[in-house]
Design goal:
This protein is mainly alpha-helical. It is flat. The two termini are 45 Å apart.
Amino acid sequence: MKLLETKRTTPYPTIQCLLREIALAFDTKSYLSDSVARKLGDQCKKLEIHIHEYESLKEASVIEPIRMVFDDEIAARITIFLRLITTRYFEWIEEHPLDGISVLQANNLFKRTRFFECLIAGTFFRAEKEGVLCLPYGTNLLLNDSNASNDVINELDNKDAKDTFRNWLSGKYQPSFKYVENLDKQASDSELNVAEWKKIKWGLISSRFINYFDPDYSNKTITSQHSEAFKVAHSKNAMQFIQVKQIIVGIFSEFKLKGMAEKNNEDKQKLEQLLSLLSIQIKAVDPQFSIDYTYHQFKARHLVLAGKLEDANKEYKAAFESSLYRAHSKAQIQLVIREALLVAAKQKRPDKVFILRLKSAAILLKFDNLPAKIDEEGKNRPPVLYNNEVEEYRQKFDAMFPDRLAYPSVTYPKYNQTVGLLIETEELDETELLKKNKIKIGSEYGVQRVTTPLIDAASKNNIGLALKLVEAGSSVNVTSEVGDSPLLLALDQLDFEDPFSSMDDRLFELFSNKQHSEITLNTVTERKMRFPLYAAVDTGKPSIVKKVISLNSGINIDLRGGLDYISSLYQAMGIIGKIKNPKALLQSLSEPNEETIHRLKPMFAGMPNMSNNDIIEAFNGNNLDTPEKKHIYDALQLTLESRQNRKPTLSAARHVARILINAGACSNLKHKIKGKEYSPLMLAAEFDELKLFKSMIEKGGNWKKTYVLPEDSLYPVKAINCLHIAKEFKAKNVIEYIENNLI
């Protein structure tokens, strides 16, 4: 395998090198454009790869060629295969660190245990409810079945094609992806149909793939014997670093003993002495064993306590880089990433480049999740940080490293708080407000924001003051520093789900009679990621949605927002679903998954630190032992009550969706929700909303467009389209329409 022959500096090969090996095994690499092939090669020369670069290369180098030559279903299965390989590989590295083991020793271990062969083959042949993950349609490894192979040879027209196939069968050489693609053209007289030829072709490519990794076709998988072999190898090698380990234990004990205690100069000197000893011992070790990450990790923590944050940031970089593909446990790279994020954010100018590297790695290694937001204006890559995340890290630094726990005389820099609850102070005199263009709101001891008197009046539903400000010339085309506008805040007063909204439409009537700019209508707020059209949908009122759309022809009808980063049409369809099946919503809220919790984080930014488990308990009402959890639970119950009592009629909700469809909203936009990539059209199919479904189809909706199921789904089909969804949810009307009119 090229994977183990290529020069590298870490015991475990990088995930991008493993991807390249998979592309070589499928021979899709020969199918790539020069630019994609070059990009894959260039990434394999690097230690780190950005999460979105990795996802893009997976698609371009393996999945898309398979989709083009075969179909969505096979491509979906290979997508799941690659997801599983990535997850299993990083889980393995986390449980089986190879720090202190050289690349040569690691290669010998991989070869002796046939680790990669077993990882690849075991995942490829994963048992499904019906068949095998990567062998759909009852496909067999064709080159391992001489009778089936001879049947195919008999279908071929000419001697060259037959000889080529026989050479594949003998193992003289392997079938190429490009040749297999056109194999049916060598059988002009064959009576086999397209589906039968596709099965043959995939049987050949699957044979090539497995023979590349596992020529004996042993169909092995990772077992406890592999685990034992890796742990024994690591343990035996660690014996030569006993002195290093003793010092590490000593430093760790010091940090643990003094962690939550005030420190003196003797504590500081003791740590410096221990770090000096550790440095001496590590320098005496052959560099090929690369055990210096612990030194950098401990020195970084020591420098933080000494108040030297710039130097600490450099040491965290060294610890991070030397831990990758070597030591991924909770006490190793995971701890480094958690602390490094806080220190990088606490710099005078946050080290955003390093923060992005850390976050990308955390997501790739499955320690963290992607934010819901999938694009960012002016950026080539989708974001890995949610809004306000850097500011939140600064506050978390203050909680983890308070001045009182630092070394003597150390005071950490203090910055203005920009995230958290905005605490109202005394209101300005109305006469003064009428004279001002900008005002500062909030407490000097907490979050403060610059806004305008009109925005502030709208946030408080102060209709009298708002009217005076408008008459005095205050513009509605202004936004606060977090994206609020007068129109958006007026619409928030009409949100049927918000138990604290007044349902007073006078502000909306006042502002909506004014000319609005594209910028005002298309600005998304920082925290809740709301914008006027999205807020208009949340009123459930067709007349308001229609009015907002009419305010400017430049309104972005497909703008995304909300904590799940969805379009207004998707939100409108979601409201229809909540009205038709309120129990499903209640169940999803009482059982929040990891993705849901992660997407709530912008809402909790700057608030007392809550673990994922705290949030789960707050949602389901269990163990409400803190004021924060009780507050969240009570707010959720009020929201559910408000939704039930003030929800729009089903006909009104449908009317809202029709207005958006007729205004050009795209029904094919994919939204990543709960492990799925759903579109508004798919929601219409699920809810059996035939009229809306037909309207979307007439406006360009593509019912054949698929998404790939999550890895843990037992559903037999993996590429899911609207018909699959309609059948799963027994949407009789949509099923009949598709089968009678679209197939």
